[in-house]
Design a protein that fits this description.
This protein is an alpha/beta fold. It contains three helices and nine strands. The protein has helices at residues 12-29, 47-56, 108-119; strands at residues 5-10, 36-43, 62-71, 77-85, 95-104, 124-132, 148-152, 158-159, 175-178. A six-stranded mixed β-sheet has the order 4-3-2-5-6-7, sandwiched between helices. It has a three-stranded antiparallel β-sheet with strand order 1-9-8, covered by helices on one side. Helix 2 links the parallel strand 2 and strand 3 (62-71). The longest helix is centred in the first third of the chain and has 18 residues, at 12-29. Bound molecules: inosinic acid (IMP) and magnesium ion. Inosinic acid binds next to strand 3, strand 5, helix 3 and strand 8.
C-alpha cells in the first residue's frame, strides 16, 4: 500500500460491487425513454469511476466531459464554481443527463451544475457520485441529495480512484484516507 495512505476506505472489491449496483439502477431507470442518455463526467476526478460505470451500463449511452474548478489546491473548497470546459450541443431538449462526480463535499459544484444544465435546456438532469460526505454539506444545500450514491463516507480527506491531493494519488485503485501529515492537517 502507498505509505502516505493511513487506511483504505473503499477497496477494489467494494468498488466493483458499487459500480455494478449503480449501473443496474441506471439501466432500470432509463429504459425505453425514447431520448438520448448522456453520462457527463466532471474532470478530472471522475474519470476512473466513469470508466468503470459506463462499461457496466447495458443501455446505449453517450459520454461527454465538463471541467469545473472548485478546489484550488490542497484540501479546502474554494466556494465559487468556475466552468473551465463547457458542454456544447444543440439537442439538449432530447437528452437525459446524468452528471458523474467523484465526491460531494459542500454540494456546491453539483447543485450549480444541475441548475446550469437545466437552464441550458436538458430534458432532465440527475446526479451520480461515487462518494458522499453529507457532514460537509453547505448549510443552504443541506437537503441536496444525489440520485445515485456509491458510498457515504465520514468527513476525512480521501484520495485514490480518481481523487487527488495536488494532482497526486489519482491512479490508486482504491479510496484511501490521506495521512494528515501529508497536507499539514
Ligand atoms: P463540493 O463543490 O464542495 O461538493 O466539492 C466537490 C469537489 O471537491 C470534488 O469534485 C473534488 O474534486 C473535491 N473534493 C472534495 N472532497 C475531497 C476529498 O476528500 N479528496 C479529494 N478531493 C475532494
Ligand atoms: Mg479535485
Amino acid at each position: 500500500m502507498n505509505p502516505n495512505i493511513a487506511s483504505v476506505l473503499v477497496d477494489e472489491a467494494e468498488i466493483d460491487r458499487i459500480t455494478t449496483r449503480i449501473a443496474a439502477e441506471i439501466d432500470r431507470d432509463y429504459q425505453n425513454t425514447g431520448r438520448k442518455l448522456l453520462l457527463l463526467c466532471i474532470l478530472k476526478g471522475s474519470v476512473v469511476f466513469m470508466g468503470d460505470l459506463m462499461k457496466k451500463i447495458t443501455l446505449p449511452v453517450e459520454i461527454d466531459f465538463m471541467k469545473v474548478s472548485s478546489y484550488g489546491s490542497g484540501t479546502v473548497s474554494g466556494g465559487q464554481v468556475n466552468i473551465l470546459l463547457d458542454l456544447h450541443r444543440k439537442d439538449l431538449p432530447d437528452v437525459d443527463i446524468i452528471i458523474v462526480e467523484d465526491i460531494i463535499d459542500s454540494g456546491r459544484t453539483l447543485s450549480y451544475l444541475m441548475e446550469y444544465l437545466r437552464l441550458k435546456g436538458a430534458h432532465s438532469v440527475r446526479t451520480c457520485t461515487m462518494l458522499d460526505k453529507p457532514e460537509r454539506r453547505d448549510e443552504k444545500l443541506r437537503d441536496f441529495r444525489p440520485d445515485y450514491v456509491g458510498a457515504v463516507i465520514p468527513d476525512e480527506f480521501v484520495v485514490g480512484y480518481g481523487l487527488d491531493y495536488d494532482e497526486q494519488y489519482r491512479a490508486l485503485p482504491y479510496v484511501g484516507i490521506l495521512r494528515p501529515e501529508v497536507y499539514g492537517g
